[in-house]
Amino acid sequence: MLTWDGDEVDEVEGPEAEEATAGQRWQMTVTTGGERLDHFLVMALPALTRSALQRLIETGEVTLNGAATRPAQKVRAGDVVTVHVPSPRPATLAAEPLPLAILYEDADLLVVDKAAGMPVHPGAGNPSGTLVNAVLAHCPDLQGVGGEVRPGIVHRLDKDTSGVIVVAKNDAAHQGLQRQFKTRAVHKTYVALLIGALKPDEGLIDAPIGRHPVQRQKMAVVAAGREARTRWHVLAHLQDATGRPYTLVEAYPETGRTHQIRVHFAWLGYPLVGDATYGPAHPPLPAPRQFLHARELMLHHPSTGQALTFQAPLPEELSAVLATLTPA
Questions:
Q1: 224 & 323 share domain
Q2: Could you tell me if 202 and 244 lie in one domain?
Q3: How many angstroms separate the CA atoms of 272 and 298, rounded?
Q4: What is the DSSP letter of 328?
């Protein structure tokens, strides 16, 4: 058990846990002791992985009763634990002249149809070749917009998810778009192909999402997770040559948790075709990647207030998967 004296984590659209908590500080008072400090923190801060917490302890960003400590230290009732996640150091990102499918551009916004396989911003294992690198080549003045190491980025798509993503070209637009995402004034429509015959034809998945309790690199529906809501509408019931059923759906995420659509449908029993992380070990239908595409984004222009709708067509590699199926 614990009490919270620090700030709560700000809601961030489609974050990784370490990114979402950068710059935050928590102070916790232990009410029931007897366990290792790192084990206590894994339960207290599910947004952070055990390895991340151990690094914070080892670098002195975690204190026990005001003093540096070690992961194996036992906590006792009344102990005060403070955790600080430092902000990332600003970095100069390299501009790379990579292909961009631009859907719309003006002085405030750049809207792109992101290709599958392109990470949104540099990170572990992806130091270059990202959307940010490509956008910096197209808009050299974007460096530093938003005061982050991810210039102009206000929301994210998974590396292997394609579709519409908006980039802010100045600080005012960045702040205006952030407000819209935080208040859930932005409406997103995804297309997904599911394994199985989903019934009924419309519904809502309302199930909290957090770090998987064992496989910490994955997300899962967990009781202690953050609120997560995904609506769906069935577009078509399909089948393969053997009669195995599939369902093509539109998904409308009302929140922006990491891997939300993939986790929700897998939890419901209908994983996405091609999802190597949340789908079956031996997928019945070959696919080049997860069948998930951000087809439509509706928002208001941060300067004029005009309602805008942007759409991206289904990529050829996903259309080819659909071409192997017939109506059920």
A1: yes
A2: yes
A3: 24
A4: -
Where do we find the tokens 């100045």?
Answer: 170
Model confidence, pTM: 0.75
What is the span of the domain harbouring residue 71?
2-84
Structure tokens at 317: 């590699």
Mean pLDDT throughout 69-76?
91
Q: Does the annotation count 158 as an active-site position?
A: yes
Dist. CA 53–CA 72, nearest whole Å: 12
Give the CA angle between residues 173, 112, 314 to the nearest 5°. 140
pLDDT, tens digit (0-9, with 9 covering 90-100), for 100-125: 999 999 999 999 999 999 999 887 67
Report the DSSP pairing between strands 229-239 and 219-221. Answer: unpaired
The number of domains in the chain is 3
Q: Report residue 12's pLDDT band, with 50, 70 and 90 as the boundaries.
A: very low
Q: Which of 158, 160, 201, 240 is catalytic?
A: 158
Please enumerate, as own/partner, the contacts of 30-34 that have beta carbons within 8 Å and a separation of 24 or more. 30/1, 30/2, 30/75, 30/76, 30/77, 30/78, 30/79, 30/80, 30/81, 31/1, 31/2, 31/3, 31/77, 32/1, 32/77, 33/74, 33/75, 33/76, 33/77, 33/78, 33/79, 34/74, 34/75, 34/76
